[in-house]
Amino acid sequence: MSVKLGVAPIAWSNDDMPELGGDTSLEQCLDEASQAGYIGIESGGKFPKKSSELLPKGGKHSSYITKKVVLENTSTSVKVLFDGIRNSSNEFKVFVKTKKDSDPGDFDDMNYIEIPTVNYPSSETKSQYRAFDFEIKDLSEFKEFSVKIAMIGNDQSDIPKIRNVRCLALAI
């Protein structure tokens, strides 16, 4: 069993009392958390508010973003399937943004949310594609959606790869 640790940004600055670490930059907070071995960090007051401004830190990344899909009927779940190459030094994160007809604002300004993993295998070789499965259920009804797949790695000679991407909007 592997364990991944995260930390809260209050270890570097306090949103309620800005005089405590108020001069600490977001970059310093993220760099020091990474150097301390944390794999993730909770969002705080210094973080961007739009998910489109949030990018993985501490490695090289690339994203695949689908076009906006407009559905004829409403859905409440999204399932993302793809074949990918992933080892212990790289990862995939999958996100979705949704919008119903009555939501105010522009679709492009909506925030992405992370889709939980259903099947997340490791490849045994640099050329072995494995089946990945991500799914999120019980969303508010929506008629528009877009999926973003972030491919994150630290080794340019051993990059994560994807193919055969399928994004399904489900009404379950």
Describe the structure.
Helix 1 (26-35) links the parallel strand 1 and strand 2 (40-41). Helix content is 6%, strand content 41%. It starts with 5 loop residues before the first strand and ends with a strand. With 172 residues, it is mostly beta strands. The strands form three sheets. Strands 3, 4, 6, 7 and 10 form a five-stranded antiparallel beta sheet that branches. It has a four-stranded antiparallel beta sheet with strand order 8-9-5-11, with no helix packed on it. The mean pLDDT is 83. It has two domains: 1-47, no CATH class; 51-170, Jelly Rolls, CATH 2.60.120.200.
Q: What's the number of structural domains?
A: 2
- Considering DSSP H and I runs of 4 or more, what fraction of the residues is helical? under 10%
**What is the count of β-strands?**
11
User: What's the order of the H and E elements?
Assistant: EHEEEEEEEEEE
Give me the oligomer status.
Answer: single chain
CATH architecture of the largest domain: Sandwich
Using the alpha-carbon principal axes, give the shape.
Answer: flat
Assigned CATH class of the largest domain: Mainly Beta
Distance between the termini: 32 Å
Class inferred from helices and paired strands: mainly beta
Strand content range? 35-45%
Radius of gyration: 18 Å
> How many helix segments?
1
CATH topology of the largest domain: Jelly Rolls
